[in-house]
Amino acid sequence: MSLSIQGRTAIVTGAGHGIGRAIADHFVSLGANVMFADWDETALQVGLAQHDPDSGPVRWFSGDLSQRLTLANLLSATLDAFDRVDILVNAHRLVRETDPLEPDSEAVEEMLRHNVMGPLRLSQIVARRMIRQATDEHDPVQAGAIVNLTTLAGARPDPARMGYSIACAAQEQATRNLALVLAPRRIRVNAVRFGSVMSHELKQSLKADADLRARMLAGTPLGRIAGPDELTEVVHYLVSEGARFVTGQVLTVDGGRSLVDGVTGTVRKGLVP
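Above: the chain sequence. Below: its structure as tokens.
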């Protein structure tokens, strides 16, 4: 089984912080050409100080990834730098609290714009490029790979973050639909649904809620919070030829947290002693 992505070109959104940054750095370490994309230009510049953006396989792009023109410019910048794109990881996420009974709030629309429509549109234009590239190649297995990052919020109601919860569920369904459409073109589309992983957003939540860590550990059968690198390895597998027969799947990486009853906080009978 080959996990090599050496020489491949990847776009990773949300690469200024946390999980997106960890994925992009990991791809660089594996010899891939990587476009780091994020809205936070300062974070990109600071984070990429360890890389050489002028002579190495690394470039960065800053902008509002919910806007059509920005997405088109991101793809153009990638093609200008590397002449192709083989991998897309949609790791950019926006999390906001939502009043579930406030019809005039734009929070739900904001969550859908950033977490669903942005990744979906970027996937569409990148996939079209992958299809054009494939006409000049002879790889019968894989013309490209797309991975969307989502969370357990898509599988469980979360009234305090209703917009984000709806967006995560929608992104998972978009993953399945694109996988069906693109399978004949040899482009695979999968998602990773994570829970107990130390993301940038989780770090902020832990600072704001002193009891959150204890609750998470109690509700995670493996008894710990994973580092971003443990999610990175899963994404690496999904974009490699090792996963060449895997598409349309939502792979859960949460230390068993999805096995736990979200209401009572207890492990469901029969799963864990």
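Strands lie at 9-13, 33-38, 58-62, 87-90, 144-151, 187-194, 250-253.
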